[in-house]
Amino acid sequence: INPSIPLFQIQRNLAGLVPHAVDRAIKEVISAVVERSVTISCLTTREMVTKDFAMEPDENVLKKAAQLMVSSVSGSLALVTCREPLRVSLTNHLWQLLLPHCQAKDMNETAALEQVVHILSTDNLELGCNLIEKAVVDKALKDIEESIAPALQARKDQRARQPSVPYYDANYIQPNSKWPQALPEMLRPKPGPLSPQQLKVYKDFNAMPIGSAKARLPAGLPPLNVAGVTTSGASQEQPGASLGGLGGLAASGGGSAPASASEAAAAQAEPELQSSPRTTSGAAAAAAESSGAEEGRSEADGPSIVPPPVPVDAQAALASLTGTMDQVVQNLINDPPLLPPIDAANPHLYKQDDALDACAALAMLPLDHELAGLLRQVPQWLSQCPHAETCALDLAQRLFKRLYDAPQVVPQVHPPDTVSLLHAVIEVDLSVMETLKDTLKEQLAKVLLVWVDDVPGVQRYSIDVISGLLRYGLIGIPEFDRLLAKWVDPRGRDNHGSVNALALDFAVLLLQRVCLQQRIFAGQDFSHTMEALVREATRTMQYQQLGMSPQEAQPGEAAAKLLEELRSA
Q1: Is 422 exposed, middle or buried (0-12, 13-18, 19+ CB in 10 A)?
Q2: Three-state DSSP class for 338?
Q3: Element (H, E) at 174
Q4: What is the pLDDT of residues 332-373, one digit of tens each?
């Protein structure tokens, strides 16, 4: 109730009539709205989810998807259906309750009362809509659980009777039926869990909160704000700056700069990265030996950098710190953050991007969250440690190994309304690694570049890891650009003059992600790589005229397409 309304300043007791008017208006319209919205949303949701999840063996995934869809659909229907009838009803009841007490004697007094009723109905309409929406959503969630109960029980029974046999819903998947065999291959259901891209359809119901449906998300969620990214997508990077992170999540408790966004690390502490048997006399020696990384290294340049052993008096404290990190990670895996709402102004920043979804969701965690405490604890401990550089290097190598091991140890299946567990893990590792910048300074970027170059085989080409290291400013763009160009160049060391198809595909996918999808960097930031891609695209065009097979030409054609997209971006 607006306290500035003159009527209530003169007759304060009349303010008590407004809640009665709201209550009567809601009771007048709610039954029809609930019946219509719940019936339509539950029927639609049941038919959609049982068909889409016909080969999904996990009943919890089916149930969660149904809850997300029915709450969004029923809430939206309720708001659309109830708003106008509620406004009319609320206006009528306000007139009926206020008019006997006002005794309007002329047109001016009647107009003044009409203005009061208009203000009160406008101010309380949203409240009434939200209360009705909440009632509808609560009823829909209850009814959908009953509606899909047979489908949930069928999955439990199948797992109990025949755990090794893939589940399928016989109501939708029949051997001799036209559907789904007649569907194109990419649309045809396949045995086992749905892919992350398919689950994204149901995730997005949670990214469109309306009215009280926002209760499914943490209160006060800000829109995604990735530092250094402009609306045009051009990079505004400062030296050593993180281009995507947790914002101020870790900044309130320490004296250091704000830590970057984090992802939950693997559930168990991993052993140190295995590399060539060599030790150094100290952390400074490791940095000196890594200086050649800026120009790109080969295995012939020398063996990998192994940090010196952690002194005995620091091992217990380091073990305690990694134990804390493991616990924070495990808690995030057990209770992953919900997907962030879509920022309508900049949906390209994280829409359909699991890494930035995780970045945004973790950045919204409260400042007293245990992850924020961890990000403050690491630099504080290092600032008091007598062997800070040695311990920081050891921790950096542990984190680096965890980044590359994450796909093998982190669960791939997660509730459809939460962020990807894998990407949440990677974000946590990256954010903890970023806290080492104050201790290791330029040394961190140098050793990380060496370690990236020394990762063997296909594992080296991890889009999630490399794009994350770049986004957090943990490796320099110019140095990595030169290294990536050497990976791609047919004259490079890995392929003895032949095309390095893996490196070429990786370069194309990496630039697609960071320049076109995430829009964190611009194509010109990778000038050496662009030159290598131009050479490969030109070579492909020449060899196509000489009879190159379509399969052999595919990497070069992808490079040419990327170059065109970057020019027009």
Answers
A1: buried
A2: strand
A3: none
A4: 888 888 877 655 445 444 446 788 888 888 888 887 788 888
Q: What share of the chain is helix, strand, coil (3-state, %, to 5)?
A: 65, 0, 35
Tell me the C-alpha distance between 110 and 259, whole Å.
60
Residue with tokens 């966004």: 261
Task: Please give the DSSP secondary-structure letter assigned to residue 341.
Answer: P
Q: Is 418 helix (H, G, I), strand (E, B) or coil?
A: strand
Copy the structure tokens of residue 550. Answer: 């379509």
Task: Centre a 10 Å sphere on the Cβ of residue 28 and count the other Cβ atoms it contains.
Answer: 16
Q: Which of 474, 476, 483, 534 is nearest to 508 (CA)?
A: 534
Q: Tell me the H-state helices in 435-513.
A: 437-440, 442-454, 463-471, 477-488, 501-511
Which residue's entry shows tokens 């040419």?
560
Distance CA 223, CA 9 (A): 39
* Residue 139: both structure tokens together: 């009823």
User: Structure pTM?
Assistant: 0.51
**Contacts of residue 398, Cβ cutoff 8 Å, sequence gap at least 6:** 269, 270, 272, 273, 322
Residue with tokens 């149930």: 63
Separation CA 471–CA 350 (nearest Å):
13
Separation between Cα atoms, residue 319 and residue 312, nearest integer Å: 11
d(CA 302, CA 273): 17
In b/e form, how buried is each residue of 321-341, taking b as 16+ CB within 10 angstroms?
Answer: bbebbbebbeebbeebbbbbb
| pLDDT tens digit sequence for 386-417 | 888 889 999 999 999 999 999 888 887 777 77
Q: Would you mind telling me the total number of residues written for the chain in this entry?
A: 569
What is the torsional sign of CA 318, 323, 325, 326?
positive
SS3 235: strand
